[in-house]
Design a protein that fits this description.
alpha/beta; Aldehyde Dehydrogenase, Chain A, domain 1; 3-stranded mixed beta sheet; 10 helices; 13 strands
């Protein structure tokens, strides 16, 4: 008798069952994947909001060390991820995901110098523009690259000091759920990354309209889904990030940041 593996959601640093008790089997597979509910989403957002001040307040070097540790843990489980991803491009996708985490780990202490500036002003003042994290970021993973697509959005958000509520690819959720195991063993504080699975049409409206989500990345959404998200997000002035999938860039980090301008008297 074969016993099907039952995966769990990753919320507040713990692996938990969906409160609804529902599950589904992607592609008719032999595993049970939890079907997250509206309450699961609320719990994930609450955990992220609670974790945000401490994560944003950590030193840039420390955030970089944790991202680098995640890269080490991911690389250490390479064989497992290659098997999960399958296909000829599996090894390449895994290697690129590891490289992405390492790359953004190196950017944590360089971001202010690249995206910030000293503004020329007429008066006895310094005027600085400095980046600050947006807060709680919702991320929708693309289906075509379920591991790399998610890492490419989560890494820059974490690099800038944001916290994440991510929706795994509905058709291929196992790489994301296994990535949660990597984050759980990478010194990442509880609540900084939360990963949900389930039906996108059920969870997306609540993610887009939640008042405590500050931004949502729609890289994994269709055109119709993006339109619906924009309409829901307009009610709470939520930022909708629509950057295309592509190469790593420090300006992708800036997409998850707010720019703060500070005046300071010269000589004080």
């Amino acid at each position: 008798m074969d016993v099907r593996k039952t995966y769990k959601l990753f919320v507040n640093g713990e692996f938990v069952r969906s409160e609804s008790g529902r599950a589904y089997r992607p592609d008719g597979g032999q595993v049970n994947v939890p079907r997250g509910s509206r309450k699961d989403l609320r719990d994930a957002v609450r955990a992220a909001r609670t974790a945000f001040p401490a994560w944003a307040g950590r030193t840039a070097m420390n955030r970089g060390q944790i991202l680098y540790r995640a890269a080490e843990m991911l690389d250490g489980r390479a064989a497992q991820f290659v098997e999960l991803l399958g296909g000829a491009r599996a090894r390449r996708e895994l290697d690129q995901a590891v490289e992405t985490l390492v790359w953004y780990a190196g950017w944590t202490d360089k971001l202010p110098q690249v995206t910030g500036t000293v503004n020329p002003v007429a008066g006895p003042y310094f005027n600085f523009t400095i980046p600050e994290p947006t807060g709680v970021v919702g991320i929708v993973a693309p289906d075509d690259a379920p591991l790399l697509g998610l890492v490419r959005r989560v890494a820059p958000a974490l690099c800038g000091g944001n916290v994440v509520v991510a929706m795994a690819a509905e058709s291929r959720p196992l790489p994301a759920l296994t990535l949660a195991e990597v984050f759980a063993t990478s010194d990442l504080p509880a609540g900084v990354v939360n990963i949900l699975t389930g039906q996108r049409k059920e969870l997306l409206p609540w993610l887009a309209s939640h008042m405590d989500v500050n931004a949502i990345d729609v890289a994994g959404c269709s055109g119709e889904e993006v339109k619906a998200i924009e309409e829901s997000a307009a009610g709470n002035v939520k930022r909708v990030i629509k950057l295309p999938e592509g190469e790593r860039s420090p300006y992708l980090i800036a997409a998850f940041m707010e720019m703060k301008t500070v005046w300071h008297p010269i000589g004080v």
